[in-house]
Each structure stands twice: as structure tokens, then as C-alpha cells.
Amino acid sequence: MSADYITMTIPKQKRIALIAHDAKKEELIKWCEDNRNILSRHELCGTGTTARMITDRTNLQVKGYNSGPLGGDQQIGAKIVEGRIDFVVFFSDPLTAAPHDPDVKALLRIAQVYDIPMANNKATADFMIQSKLMDEPYDHKVINFQKNIDNRANTLGK
Ligand SMILES: O=C(CO)COP(=O)(O)O
């Protein structure tokens, strides 16, 4: 019988998503500048406006998806599901209501489901980026989605 969890590997060169709400964009740009040496060793992407501003201001290459309110958080969530993003730094704004709050919550949830390291503020991002694991592959256990489907189809189909 197959296992409930499978081992996935976050590679040594990580695919990092960078996201900031408007009130936090300056803080994230400064953080990227302060950590440019480390970040430049990894593959970077982000929601549209955040990605563009980081590239403009730091010269780091950041692939941009759609803007957050237009589905960018969901695109990043989908890439996590597909195993194509494995590290997230999201400086979210806890003091401003956003129209796409459900998308933000969905991204948080899917990062939890897939056991993806995710920093929601600068202190967490500092601890994560300084971790020795940034320079190593990291094995972690993720739900065996094939077995999950098999179980559900068998149970619900009865
Ligand atoms: O709203 C965002 C994340 O929820 C960020 O989107 P932008 O990077 O396009 O501003």
C-alpha cells in the first residue's frame, strides 16, 4: 500500500516568490537589497508590481506574474501545487483591508498544505534567509496527492 505522505525535495537553488502589499513594498525592496548576495543565487519570481519594483530598484531578475488583486497570488499558489515554487517571502499588510483577501488566504493555506517555508514579516524572512538550509537541498514530507485521490474516489464512489 502506498504511503500517505511522499518525500519532496526543495533544491539547493530555490525558487523564491517575493510579494508585498503596497504599504510593505519599500520594506521588501530594502530587504532584497540587504540580502542581494544570497537572493542572486536563487531563482526569483513575484506578483506583478512587486516583481517589477524589485527589479527596477535592485537589478535582481524577478519574473513577474499578474498583480495580486488580478490573480497573482493565485498564480503563485498554483505553482506551489505544481512543485515549481518552494519558498515564499510575503510582506503582507495586517492593517489594510484588501479586495483580494480570499486569494491571500488561499495562498497561505496552500503553502501550509505543501509545507512550503513562508515568511510573512521581516523578522521571519531574516531568520529564514540566514538558515544554513538555504545552501542545501531539503527533504520534506508532502501529502501523497495520488493516494489522496484514490482514497476519496474509492470512499465517495461506494
Ligand atoms: O497584492 C499583492 C499580494 O496580495 C501584491 O500584488 P502586486 O505585487 O501586484 O502589488
Automatic annotation (TrEMBL):
> What NCBIfam families is this protein classified in?
MGSA, PRK05234.1
The record's section on PANTHER family has: METHYLGLYOXAL SYNTHASE
Might you name a Gene Ontology BP term for this protein?
methylglyoxal biosynthetic process
Where, by residue number, is the active site? Answer: 73
What is the protein name stated in its UniProt record? Methylglyoxal synthase
Residue sites binding substrate per the record: 21, 25, 47-50, 67-68, 100
> In the Enzyme Commission scheme, what number(s) does this protein have?
4.2.3.3
GO terms under cellular component: cytosol
